[in-house]
Inverse folding.
């Protein structure tokens, strides 16, 4: 971490959408020391003249799989962990170049990758990891085909999830992930597109198993989030204290009411469904996966708009796999179907920070927060294409106080 002074920036207030010109931001040891409209003098500190560009916090993607260099999770589990880490480094670097300074991994990343990023060994966003996602036998984290019996249980082997059945196994799996430093616990609560033997509309884990996971997470002062598509799957989890519902394409008003009642979050991942449906055959997605995706893509557009209109808290997320990672900024376009540019920017900054329990530390430009910010040639609160066309408009990326990209 280094000391840094940004001068002459136009600071965007994400609460009001207004911007303040001639703002200076002073960074010490990766933390914002001051945000000031007066002239700041800091001898010996690296200084960057923003030239009036628009300054906002670094983005947060709340659902990524940084080890998923392939969409085939069964194949991924057979890769060398060294090869997987090398591929993950490339994925993380791409995310940072698109303006994401923090990401929440939803299955696959571990303490080793997070440490490598923190120490600067690999280039990428701050990595909030949960280790392996928890799945029941035959659930969304079980990538065995119907004719396979052996599940590779080596923890160091790459892969999305681990299998646990019954309250005792769920508790042990949670405690093991917590021991390894997990920032959160992920449960597979319904079927999904990438798993070979379950159905989208299935429910997974018993009520007692879900409650046990929530209890273990709360004991460690972390939280549980859940993969769920349907109202039936989501509602069971929300009633038991799960903090966020991922995807949620097939929820209904009963789920929206529970999300509001529990002050929980909905985390749509529109881009992965849209991209998979559009180019799935071109990039070699299995036909079964494409068919499952078509079941949810249009329903998601309708239901996410209804959830936003109802006042549900929605965090930014993508869930892209394999060759699809490069479409990460597509999510901004898709959210623009029902959210204003300012609302989308909030979902990727302060709303996301609240979800991951880092409010005031990331997703804001205030004294005491991590120095993660972006400079754009154009006002993204007026036109979200300023963000989408990042190669043209993104002029500076600062992550943890370090200038990682500068084209001013």
């Amino acid at each position: 971490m280094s000391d840094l002074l940004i001068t002459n920036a136009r600071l965007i207030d994400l609460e009001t959408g207004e911007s303040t010109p001639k703002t200076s931001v002073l960074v010490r040891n990766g933390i914002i020391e001051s945000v000031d409209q007066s002239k700041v003098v800091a001898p010996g500190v690296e200084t960057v003249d923003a030239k009036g560009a628009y300054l906002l916090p670094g983005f947060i993607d709340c659902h990524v799989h940084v080890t998923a260099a392939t969409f085939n999770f069964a194949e991924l589990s057979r890769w060398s962990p060294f090869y997987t880490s090398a591929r993950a480094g490339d994925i993380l670097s791409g995310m940072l170049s698109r303006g994401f300074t923090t990401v929440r991994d939803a299955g696959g990343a571990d303490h080793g990758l997070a440490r490598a990023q923190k120490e600067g060994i690999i280039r990428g966003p701050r990595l909030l990891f949960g280790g392996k996602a928890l799945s029941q036998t035959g659930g969304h984290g079980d990538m065995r085909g119907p004719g396979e019996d052996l599940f590779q249980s080596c923890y160091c082997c790459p892969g999305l999830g681990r299998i646990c059945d019954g309250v005792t196994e769920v508790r042990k799996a949670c405690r093991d992930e917590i021991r390894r430093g997990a920032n959160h616990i992920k449960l597979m609560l319904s079927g999904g597109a990438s798993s070979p033997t379950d159905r989208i509309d299935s429910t997974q884990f018993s009520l007692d198993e879900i409650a046990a996971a929530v209890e273990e997470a709360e004991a460690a002062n972390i939280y549980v989030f859940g993969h769920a598509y349907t109202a039936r799957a989501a509602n069971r989890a929300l009633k038991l204290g799960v903090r966020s519902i991922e995807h949620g394409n097939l929820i209904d008003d009963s789920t929206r009411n529970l999300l509001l009642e529990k002050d929980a979050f909905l985390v749509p991942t529109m881009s992965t469904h849209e991209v998979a449906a559009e180019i799935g055959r071109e990039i070699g997605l299995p036909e079964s996966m494409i068919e499952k995706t078509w079941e949810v893509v249009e329903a998601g557009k309708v239901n996410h708009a209804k959830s936003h209109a109802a006042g549900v808290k929605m965090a930014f997320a993508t869930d892209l796999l394999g060759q699809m990672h490069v479409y990460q900024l597509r999510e901004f376009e898709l959210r623009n179907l029902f959210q204003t540019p300012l609302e989308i920017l909030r979902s990727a900054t302060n709303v996301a920070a609240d979800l991951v329990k880092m409010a005031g530390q990331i997703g804001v430009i205030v004294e005491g927060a991590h120095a993660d910010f972006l400079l754009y040639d154009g006002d993204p609160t007026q036109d979200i294409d300023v963000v989408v066309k990042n190669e043209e408009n993104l002029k500076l990326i600062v992550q943890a106080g370090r200038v990682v990209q500068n084209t001013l």
Summary: The longest strand covers residues 19-28. The longest helix spans residues 287-309. The mean pLDDT is 93. Residues 104 and 193 are 20 Å apart (CA to CA).
